[in-house]
Every structure is written in C-alpha cells, then in structure tokens.
Amino acid sequence: MKLALTVNCWSDEDLMFAQQFGVSHIVAEAVMPSPDAVDWNESVLAGLRNRVEKAGLEFVGVENIPFPYPKAILGEPGRDEEIENICSFIRNVGTAGISLLGYRWTASDYLPSNRGSK
Predict the structure, then answer these.
(1) Average pLDDT per consecutive 10 residues, the chain (118 residues; last block may be shorter)
(2) How crowded is the C-beta side of 50, counted as CA atoms within 13 Å?
(3) What is the pTM of this model?
C-alpha cells in the first residue's frame, strides 16, 4: 500500500507537513506556482515534480483541473474554449509523464443558486 497526500506542492510548509506526516507519495493540488503564471506547460509540471522529489517524496499525480469550466459543465456558449483548455491540460499532464490525474466534475458548483456565492 502507498500512503499519499494531496498538497500544494509550491508551498514549502505543505511539503514539510507531508514529510512530518510520514507519507511517501504526493498528489499535487493543481494550483499555479505564482499569480503571474498562465499555463500548465511541461516546464511548470517538471518544476512541480522537481520540488516534490527534492523534498524526498515521490510525485504520483495531479488533483483537479486548475481553472474554472462552468460553461463546459452547463453546456453554455463558450464551452468549446473551456473544453479545449481542459484537453490541453490533460495532454500536458500526459506529455510530462504523469500517470494520475484526479478531477471533479460537479455541476452543482455552477448552478444559478450557487454562482453568486463563489
């Protein structure tokens, strides 16, 4: 059995917590490394893997798609662009040799009754 933890791998504190908690495998929470970062390309993904491995942990995957996609979920105009962004992210994850991608596809987060509260 492998014990894994999902953390923000750009956070030194989160990686230290994982070390102290005794996990050996990390699933990276899909958050950008900085506010000015714009793309989850191979370089960003390699940097993510490098940070985890430098902390003495094994990088096993990415959790969540790192951008909102309510139009795709609800089938609204503009959905094709959001779907292409998702497909591009999935291709980049695969090209980077990452074999695990977890995601959440929840329409209830984007229903009109919930949109104002986000």
Answers:
(1) 86 93 90 72 87 93 84 91 90 89 73 58
(2) 7
(3) 0.76
